[in-house]
Amino acid sequence: MRYLLKLIVISILLNSCKKDDNPITTADKPSEQKTINLTIDGNARSFIVYLPTGYNNAGKMPLIFAIHGGSGTPEGMINIANFKPIAERDKVVLVYPAGIQNNWNDGRPTTPNQLGINDVGFFNQMCDYMINNYSVEGTKIYATGISNGGFMSSRLGCELSNRIAAIAVDAATIEATTISPNCNPGRPVPAIYIHGTSDPFVPFTGGQMTAGGTAGGTVLSHFQSIDKWVTINGCNTTPTITDLPDIANDGTTIKQRVYSGGINGSEVVSYVVLNGGHTWPQGYQYLNEAIIGKTSQDMNACEVIWTFFKRFNR
User: Which of 8, 12, 93, 155 holds its CA 20 to 30 A away from the CA of 172?
Assistant: First the structure.
């Protein structure tokens, strides 16, 4: 009897080992897109979250905020700047937030600015929400946007550097009277600025904004914005200049300037789109060319931005 009990115990132990050697794997979940609604400072706020296929097995994932322009929507930003193929390939979480009355408090006299909306606080709380509810790597959170969303990305780089690892700004610069003078982030913030020389709404040479809505405001030029971040990040002031291949023959060309050697390896990159409009390179032409100018096909802005972002963490 005692011998029989020993055999049973040995059998149980062997079977237990076999189960440990061949753990059951969880199937990859399909991609998921959902709208999250929160109340922040008494205001109803919302944002779209996109989770890539297999997010349940991907471990801690980077997060990209993709911020719509003035009068835009999260859904419209998905069309203009579709990061979903990148999210699927490299397992990145995407967040497309909605501004109050479809605008952002980027420092210029927008509607949220006049209402005193704390959009920097909104982004900070979205960071908390995403880290607490999803498998997001808190040191790899990035912000990019177009137009009003680009100005907001600049502000986040200045004022939320404890959460944002790097920024990429398209068809925008930095608000000149309050945001830029007080832009003193507590750490280097790698930055990309993409700007068309024929942008009809945000003047490439800076100054007073008069076209493209009623927000107005005074903004830095493209190169003043670049100089600002080169100084903050301690980068070399002499860039490496490259003319990107004119692959599309669409009437635009792109010149890249890379300012390297910054603190902790930080970098600033300028993309000047000669004859480019108020657009996202290789993005959706959301209005007629006669209104917003040309959309350059000479580079994929989403791919360029992600290639830059993934080199940096906070």
Answer: 93
